[in-house]
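Worked example 3 (structure in, sequence out).
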């Protein structure tokens, strides 16, 4: 199968230019002007962008959590990704106590294989940092193809600082990366106690309990651990200006600390917790939504390079049947998380590029090229000869009103209901095959269930 995309604007991190892109089989074969090749499929891409498929480095698909399981399985979650222009997913799998990293990775692969419609990888989530698990880090990096490891400083399955330090030492030796959910367990525990005593346990108090200072403290601790070990660390779902300030201060001193933020922290704010009829529960996620000032600081971080990637933290729970399964009178019992896998690229283009907050080139960096580099996806993340043909033909002018009815995620709401976006994918290719296309008033999945492959990632270069 070959595809010729003609006269589109090829976007890279360093500039954009009009060209033809020729795809043969799974890969981009050549790029040039006026390419004289015959292809099985030719697309007039004049006026459209040719973007590398987005890469979502933060999803929780089919994940057991807080007494339930996230609502998307690998089929529905990856179809939603494809329809949003995301052609590679790096999902978290949380190790169960007693399991090896190999068990944890294999368990998630077994769920994905035969269902995923786009390529995927896995970050082992380390919850049981026994000495043999620390020893296994080298194998995970060099044999399993999973060089990034998630730890939590919050939740019951959090690890202590000693485990964080030991993991940082091992990843430094072998070319890996520790990713950290940075919230102080103890600050949040104390605030939870105070709100429980006062009888204030509705959704807005979830946000108050997960205070900015809890993130700031944990980011600071993670930065200290990275500095102490001389290793590198990646803060997932950074939500606050104060947290970013800690990242920036450490980076200015030469500490290897990186940050990801998510569309929800850039585009939504804490007012959402006051939605009537317990609607605030839709946004019960950790960390929580913040004030618009925090969003503005995160946009600044994306512009100046102190925030390197966007992930969605897609962790969908139905509003009816899951968010409310443990009752409505204690925010601590509400499953944490919200959907977002399908809306990342459209929101980042519309709220970022179309509103002049980031350039088109920066968009490509933070949703694809930089993400591929950060996580060792050597064949993905760029429109360049030899790379996987994971491509989005993107119409920058198309208007779309986000509504759950027109999305493919297997959940009963979207946090972005009613958002009007400018710019939508027109055609999405995964390794040279069309997987989604615009169909009148919404995206349509046209790919093949199970074609998505597990991608072995490369050890990360020294920094
Ligand atoms: O609330 C969230 N973010 N749920 C998913 C798990 C996590 O903390 O990333
Ligand atoms: Zn987290
Ligand atoms: Zn998460």
């Amino acid at each position: 199968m070959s595809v010729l995309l003609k006269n589109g604007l090829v976007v890279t991190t360093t500039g954009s230019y009009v060209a033809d892109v020729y795809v043969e089989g799974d890969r981009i074969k050549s790029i040039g002007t006026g390419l004289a090749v015959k292809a099985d499929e030719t697309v007039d891409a004049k006026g459209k962008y040719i973007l590398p498929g987005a890469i979502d480095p933060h999803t929780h698909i089919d994940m057991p959590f807080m007494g339930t399981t996230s609502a998307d399985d690998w089929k529905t979650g990856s179809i939603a990704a494809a329809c949003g222009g995301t052609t590679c997913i790096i999902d978290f799998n949380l190790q169960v106590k007693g399991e090896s990293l190999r068990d944890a990775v294999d368990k998630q692969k077994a769920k994905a294989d035969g269902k995923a419609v786009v390529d995927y990888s896995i970050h082992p989530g380390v919850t049981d940092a026994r000495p043999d698990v620390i020893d296994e880090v080298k194998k995970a990096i060099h044999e399993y193809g999973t060089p990034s490891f998630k730890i939590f400083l919050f939740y019951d399955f959090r690890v202590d600082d000693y485990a964080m330090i030991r993991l940082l030492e091992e990843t430094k030796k072998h070319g890996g990366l520790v990713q950290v959910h940075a919230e102080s367990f103890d600050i949040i525990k104390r605030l939870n106690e105070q709100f429980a005593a006062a009888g204030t346990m509705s959704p807005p108090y979830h946000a108050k309990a997960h205070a900015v200072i809890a993130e700031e403290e944990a980011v600071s601790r993670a930065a200290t651990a990275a500095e102490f070990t001389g290793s590198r660390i990646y803060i997932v779902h950074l939500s606050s200006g104060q947290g970013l300030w800690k990242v920036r201060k450490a980076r200015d001193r030469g500490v290897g600390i990186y940050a990801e933020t998510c569309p929800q922290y850039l585009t939504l704010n804490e007012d959402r917790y006051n939605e009537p009829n317990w609607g605030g529960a839709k946004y019960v996620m950790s960390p929580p939504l913040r004030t618009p000032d925090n969003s503005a600081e995160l946009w600044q971080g994306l512009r100046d390079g102190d925030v390197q990637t966007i992930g969605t933290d897609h962790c969908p729970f139905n509003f009816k049947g899951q968010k409310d399964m443990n009752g409505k009178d204690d925010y601590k019992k509400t499953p944490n998380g919200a959907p977002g896998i399908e809306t990342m690229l459209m929101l980042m283009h519309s709220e970022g590029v179309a509103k002049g907050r980031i350039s088109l080139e920066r968009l490509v960096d933070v949703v694809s090229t930089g993400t591929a580099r950060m996580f060792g996806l050597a064949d993905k993340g760029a429109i360049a000869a030899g790379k996987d043909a994971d491509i989005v033909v993107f119409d920058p002018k198309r208007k779309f009103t986000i509504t759950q009815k027109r999305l493919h995620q297997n959940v009963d709401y979207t946090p972005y209901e009613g958002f009007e976006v400018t710019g939508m994918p027109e055609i999405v290719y995964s390794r040279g095959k069309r997987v989604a296309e615009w169909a009148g008033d919404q995206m349509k999945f046209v790919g093949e269930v199970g074609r998505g492959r597990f991608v072995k990632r490369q050890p990360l270069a020294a920094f």
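Notes: The chain has a mean pLDDT of 98. Residues 216 and 245 are 8 Å apart (CA to CA).
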